[in-house]
Amino acid sequence: MKALLLVDIQNGFCPGGNLAVAGGHEIVPIANALIASGKYDLVVASQDWHPADHGSFASQHDGKNAFEMGTLGGQPQMMWPDHCVQGTADAELHPDLAADAIHFVQRKGENPLVDSYSAFRDNAGDALTGLDSYLRDKGVTELDVLGLATDYCVRFSVEDAVAFLPGVKVRFVEDASRGITAEGIEQAVASMRAKGVEVVNSTDILR
Fold first, then answer.
1. Domain that holds residue 160
2. pTM for this predicted structure
3. Residue 125 clears pLDDT 90, i.e. is over it
C-alpha cells in the first residue's frame, strides 16, 4: 500500500496568505500530477487548524512581534503571525489542489497551549494526532511526503513518519515542497537524510 501525504497545502502558506511561503503555490500542480498519476493507493493531507487564540501567535503575547522567539508550553517557540485560524479562508486547502482525491484530512494545531508542526504529534510530543494509527490500519508500506514548509511542518512530519511507522519506506519529494529559509531547508534535508529518508523529485516518481 503506497500513500502520499500532502502537508499543509493551505491558503495561509501560499502567496496572499497570512504566513506565505515563497513559491508555495508552485507545488500545487506538482501535487496534482502525483495524485493523478495512479501511483498511490491512498492520498492523505494535513491541515493547520488553529483557534483564534493560539499561543504560537505573536498577537497573543504582549511585546512580541512575528518571527521573534518566545516560549510556549515551556519550550522555545517561534512567534508566528495569526494564520490558518479555524473556519477562515486562510485555513482552507489551496483552491487548485485536487482535494476531491484526498481520502483523509488530519487537522492539527488545535490546542492553544502547544504548537503542532508534525502531522503526527504536537511539538511537546505529548499528544498524537492519530495519523500514524490511520496509516497503519490502512496497511501503508510506502509513504511519500511533500508540502509546506520544508523546514518546519514537512520536516517534522517526515521524521515522525520514520519514528511512528517502523518498517514503512518514507521519501521526501523535494521539488514538490517549499521552505522558509535556504539555511532551514538545507538543515531539514540533511536531518531527514540522516534518519534514512530518501530524497526524490516528482520526475523520479512520474517517469
1. 2-50+86-206
2. 0.97
3. no
